[in-house]
Amino acid sequence: MNYISSFARSEVNSVSHLTQIFNCLKQHFQRNNRLLEPDEALFLWERRKYEIRIRDNYTCRQCGNRSTKLQVCRLHHIEGKAIFDYPSNSLITVCNHCLDNQIFRTKHETHLLQVFDLSGFTAGDLSALTRYLSTDSIFAENLKRNVRLFANSKSNLS
Question: Which of 44, 46, 106, 138 could form a disulfide with 84, with the two C-beta atoms 3.0–4.6 Å apart?
Fold first, then answer.
């Protein structure tokens, strides 16, 4: 069974749902304005994963582990680009443990944005904070240290 036939058997609720499925397929199977066959796209992705694993010396870039099953994942989404066409600096090798931690981190980041919003921070405030963190390493290190001290003091009280 190929990728497209699995979509064909999925439950389609509306025309807009069918359009979403088509756009998803088009994004993942398009290269140089040409729609690829699923097998060709799979081959390109498998080759790309091999290149990234070689570059990373079959080592998790997060923890240095070499003994567990390794995955290749993207650091961020690039709109309109198939994952096998991502630049090398957008793909990394990670172990399953670190990948799970990254998913956990994403949930925390979402929650952090909600807390910022509820606390009255504006998008401009967050933009300024981002610029400050990226340009002032002393501020960033002090903030990180204070957050970790706060987290440790809270866990010791429990």
Answer: 44
Helix (H, G, I), strand (E, B), or coil: what is residue 120? Answer: coil
Q: Rg of the Cα trace of the chain?
A: 21
Q: What is the SS3 assignment for 54-106?
A: HHCCCCCCCCCCCCCCEEEEECCCCCCCCHHHCCHHHEEEEEHHHHHHHHHHH
48 close to 74: Cβ distance less than 8 angstroms: no
> First and final CA of the chain: distance in angstroms?
52
Residue labelled with tokens 């998790």: 60
The DSSP code for 29 is T
Residue 72's nearest CA partner among 64, 56, 80 is 56
Question: Which residues, at least 6 apart from 25, have a Cβ–Cβ distance to it below 8 Å?
Answer: 3, 4, 7
Quickly count: other Cβ atoms within 10 Å of residue 99's Cβ.
16
Q: What is the chain's pLDDT, residue by residue, as a tens digit (158 residues)?
A: 344 444 444 555 566 655 666 566 555 555 565 666 777 778 888 889 999 999 999 999 888 988 778 999 887 777 778 888 888 888 999 998 888 887 767 777 788 888 888 999 888 888 888 888 888 888 888 888 888 788 777 656 55
